[in-house]
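Collaborator request, handled under Task 6.
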Amino acid sequence: MIDVRLTGLLLVGLLGCGDTPDDAFVSEYFEIEPSDSEVLCRGLLEDMEAQFARVTDVLDLPTMSPFQIEYGPSAVEKHCSIFGVPDIPGCTVGLLDRTIIATGYSALYHEIVHGVRRGNGKHGSNFFEEGIAEVLSGFRPFPYIVEMRAADIERGPKFLAMLSGAEIKGYDYAIAGHFMSWLFAEFGDTTVAEFLNDDNFGTDVEAVFAGHFGMSLEAAETLWRTSSEVSYTWGNVCDPARDLAWDGSAIEFTGRVDCDAANTIGPSILGTIRARSHCFTPEQAGSLRVEFMATSGAAEFRQQYCTGPGGPLSPEHYQDKKVLAGETINLPFSHCTWEAVIATELDAPIDFVLRLSQP
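Structure tokens returned to the collaborator:
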């Protein structure tokens, strides 16, 4: 049996339900069938459920469960090779109860958005479909960030909205995500959802756009080019509920990274698993003594955001940092918020202690 791990999901193969494969799992939102020797950690699968719930809520669509997910390289090759895109990370095919999401780790949250829409019989202009999938793919702990100067874009929304899926190229995805971000910011969730869910969305996108946004697509493009932000971010790495608090002049963070544990997500395409992100903010810029006590793995630190003046600090204060198991080292940190990521190999779960203190 292929090793897919999630406490709380129903192993339908053991119960002998219909034609469901022996290695498939079902939950409230999906039935997942892994290919190859894929493993999905419990935390990742719980996040998948949360993403399904979140997407159906934002798009105001019912849960057409269970969605069928085929996970892993062989599944992607089987279902996505028809698109002729080299190294395609995933795809969603079919409509209603014939919808199949074929994906690996990197495209998972993006394809879930397509799956929710197609599972509800919703599909139209590929430009807008990719735009909403890009925006809503920003989910813990992987935010979606898109940056561009709209005034400099050659292939604009009016042109791209008329293209087929095969004609949408790599950078067009970012344009779609940026324009969709602007629509959300200017008109709100409800109007965007009503536009995407309109029964005529798939047949006359320009008329439907004008009906919901009160302007033509061409006029909206002009406004987007002149008034949109350079950068939009959807989703947050740091969750206040998991912030690491200082106890005097020290932080001590203990835990376990194990694919069977609810706090663990992965594996990544590199085969590593990681604890959910925890964030902290140094009391001031300067050096911190970092101790990482574990049998294997590493603790990585990634700067997320800063508030207030930065001060005259060296570039090293702002750079990402990595401490291996068993190491104790003094490292420079800016007075910014940092993400702490504890990671290890899939077959090497660890108990760990991470301690930060003044040197």
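The cover message to the collaborator said: "Residues 1-22 have pLDDT under 50 and may be disordered. Residues 55 and 113 are 6 Å apart (CA to CA). Please let us know whether this matches your experimental observations."
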